[in-house]
Amino acid sequence: MNVTIYTRVSTDDQAASGLGLAAQVAACESFAAKAGHAVAGLHTDAGISGAAGIEDRPGLMAAVAGLRRGDALLIAKRCRLGRDAFAIAMIEKAVSRKGATILSADGVGNGDDPASQFMKSVIDAASAYERGLIRSRTRAALAAKRRAGERAGEVPFGWTADENGKLIEVADEQNVLRLIHELRASGVSLRKIASILTESGHRTKKGNASWTHTTVKSILDRAAVLAA
After folding, report:
1. Which of 23, 76, 173, 202 has its CA 20 to 30 A from that of 126?
2. How far is the C-alpha of 126 from the C-alpha of 223, rounded, in Å?
């Protein structure tokens, strides 16, 4: 069987699990060698949240696009697919449409028998729960800083800080922020939003004329935390 290796890390994942990219590749290559599978390709998404949809993961899109009937998408662990049940379901559907399957190097959930299906559902639920815990802890830490009168981290997009650290709105950035939220609410992908902002001549917080999907995601995540 031909397998395509897919690896993914986000900042939170690396800190929480130690599943770095090199470790994932090593686990997948070892599994493939022992099972007699041929590695047909390797694709990676670095710094991508487990909640991101397939359209916001260029590495995953390339991996799925290259699959052929009878192939398998090989991951180190089930949580590398994602930490959101809906996103995982969409990925599984995309792989199934290619006539391929998903294999995990740790062997958990491989197969179509009831026990394997049950393990998949348990792991997916646990991954979603862990992501929720991470977000909850982050919000609690930021809220504590705000209550203490401290600014939490860098000044977020849409704001500047005065000499006392108090946040003040930046009109132009607030307009861009509203546009980002409107586009996302309309179902536009992060990559498409980045393209629209670049083509419209808007600048990032650091003054860059070129936007990336990771920059857009970071802005949305920070805005969600501030609103919590």
Report:
1. 23
2. 26
Confidence of residue 15 (pLDDT cuts 50, 70, 90): very low
Q: What are phi and psi of 210, to 5 degrees?
A: -100, 125
Residue 133 lies in a domain: no
Residue 69 near residue 98 (C-beta atoms within 8 A): yes
Residues 177, 217 within the same domain: yes
**CA separation, residue 132 to residues 50, 79, 142, 195 (Å):** 11, 14, 15, 30
> Beta-carbon neighbour count of residue 18 at 10 Å?
8
Quick one: 114 and 184 in the same domain? no
List the domain range (segments joined by +) for residue 209.
152-227
Confidence of residue 9 (pLDDT cuts 50, 70, 90): confident
Query: What is the pLDDT at residue 113?
Result: 66
pLDDT at 20: 82
